[in-house]
Write a structure and sequence with these properties.
Rossmann fold, alpha/beta, 11 helices, 321 residues, 9-stranded mixed beta sheet, 9 strands
């Protein structure tokens, strides 16, 4: 197989684990769902919340994520299974700068007509497998779900970490391109759901991609630069914050568009302060919803949060009962 950086568990193992866990949907937390950055990297002496970021026009910010939309996606299937009326594909595609990105796509095996497409962006330290249960349940409703494997590997170097974030966003947009080109997907009904650092990418996409009907940001405040700082602990705080604040979600959530936005927060999330959550909510323009849960950072297996995401997607993607 030509797969690069594909999980050792493989598709068969992921599907088996998925089937085994179907009867355990009331779990309060999931170790595969997210890596809570704040718990692993104590806050250095410098307080990133004291940094006052400069104003940057959205037109200038959009230039950061420029890529050739006509470039080949080079989607290559490495494995697939049909399980309970659903097709689960394990493949790779080309992201930013010719990088090979692993991807799961879960779709109804025999859909009638065109169906919506949703990209799911994983959290730092999480795997594609951690979202298979939710994506599978949505596929039963008639949604094609795509889960790219985009890794979070901060270095503390402003340029390197900026490139990592830019490439991650482009990888998600390329996954959206892939969905939009599928013969079974309605390209007018697209959405993105992001968790943690994936939520930061979803917030950025809310201000970039006019194709989106819905954006779900899970456990991600509007100041990703502060979370990145705590994870990277850079040697030069000022230059690092200057670079990384370009990726703060508040810069993009304030851009108007047709998309509706759902913001989900855990009340005990040490990565997202109440002030950060409030700022993200207040900054978001257009149709928006916010829900807070009695939980920490990982909301992948909090069933009320899962149900709220499902309800939101059904509404914005116009999926019937």
């Amino acid at each position: 197989m030509l797969r690069r950086r594909v999980l050792a568990i493989g598709l068969a193992g992921a599907v088996a684990a998925l089937a085994e866990g179907c009867g355990q949907e009331d779990a309060a937390d999931s170790s595969d769902g997210a890596g809570q950055i704040g718990d692993e990297t104590p806050l250095p002496t410098y307080d990133p919340s004291t940094y006052d970021p400069p104003k940057i026009d959205i037109a200038q910010l959009r230039k950061l994520y420029t890529y050739d939309q006509k470039a080949k996606l080079d989607a290559s299937l490495t494995d697939q299974q049909v399980e309970r009326g659903l097709r689960i594909e394990d493949l790779t595609y080309t992201g930013a700068k010719d990088a090979t990105v692993p991807l799961y796509i879960v779709s109804p095996y025999a859909s009638r007509g065109l169906v919506p497409g949703v990209v799911f962006a994983v959290d730092a330290g999480a795997t594609r497998d951690g979202l298979l249960t939710e994506v599978t349940e949505l596929a039963k409703l008639g949604i094609v779900g795509a889960v790219p494997g985009v890794e979070f590997e901060p270095t503390g170097d402003p340029q390197t970490d900026s490139t990592m974030m830019i490439n991650a966003v482009i990888a998600q947009q390329r996954a959206l391109d892939l969905l939009a080109k599928r013969s079974d997907v309605d390209s007018s009904r697209l959405a993105v759901v992001g968790f943690g650092w994936g939520g930061a990418q979803a917030q950025i996409m809310s201000g970039l991609d006019t194709r989106l009907s819905g954006v779900v940001s899970v456990a991600s405040g509007g100041r990703w630069s502060r979370v990145a700082y705590r994870a990277a602990k850079p040697a030069e705080p000022g230059s690092y914050m200057e670079a990384m604040t370009r990726f703060d979600g508040v810069r993009y959530l304030s851009v108007s568009g047709k998309r509706s936005v759902l913001l989900q927060f855990g009340k005990m999330d040490s990565d997202v302060s109440s002030d950060d959550a409030d700022e993200a909510t207040q900054t978001t323009v257009g149709t928006k919803e916010r829900t807070d849960y009695d939980a920490a950072h990982d909301l992948t297996a909090i069933q009320t949060a899962v149900a709220d995401r499902k309800t939101f997607l059904r509404q914005v993607l116009k999926i019937g009962s």
